[in-house]
Target: Short-chain dehydrogenase
Amino acid sequence: MPAVTADTLTLPRLPRLPETTAWRRAATVVKAQKFLEGEGFQVRRPFPGVDLAMADPFLLLDHMGAVEYAPGEARGAPWHPHRGFETVTYMIDGAMQHTDSIGGGGLITDGATQWMTAGAGILHNEVPPQDMVAKGGLFHGVQLWVNLPRTLKLAQPRYQDIGAADARLLSSDDGGVLVRLIAGDLAGHAGPGATQTPITYVHASVAAGARLAVPWPKEFNALVYVLSGSGVVGQEDRPLEEGHLAVLGPGDALTLRGRSAWEVLVLGGRPINEPVARYGPFVMNTRQEIIQAFEDYQAGRLGQIPAAHLGSTVE
Model:
């Protein structure tokens, strides 16, 4: 798993928290369901599935892989529109080629993140690079959808390219956990991602027996999703294994411990608490706004496919 590795003994350590801390408990654990997306690649999706109010401001989490593609097997999601939210694509192994209707995009690979604010609307194309299609290879990544509040639904599209070397690297207080802070704040350390909706996004590599304990904003929810391995969450040691998501209850901090080598995402955000109307690639506040998004897409107001890509399929 090449997503940014480092010697944890050389990194800044998170503070040791007292055992009297108000720890968050695992309120719900769900197993990700399998779906086919795009041209037919499989994803594991823990939400939607869990009550969306518990995940707010997050809308969707797609775990892609890990899978070893044979030559000709790699698939992507050809041209399709979005409006009203953000997509955050984090590649752990392999690569994804992204292009769009406003000239943005690029290659996302081995620990890099691309943060796309769709806002008022955009068309984009997410496919494996041609050398991976031709030769095959390991592919492993995650795409997170982050909702936007009503006031930002029609903001101008924008991008952040967060290179693998840009992630803020930290260590747990016991030195057994490598923490990659992609966005938000963790015990006073800031991640490189600039968020429209306040969130924290962490990828942690937890050694067997090691413990991660971090303060967590009271106003944020807290989710733990397992990419691989197994461990426990909360002071009550709730088991959590690959493909499972824990939704944690209220409190001042969260704690988790690895039983084996354990790869987890730790996510949290301030709930937007607004009505959600969603259909396919559009997430707005009302049904009428969804209808308007379809009309704008059909009229070409969400952008046009660049001439060099006109042979590509639009979903």
Notes: Helices lie at 52-55, 130-135, 287-298.
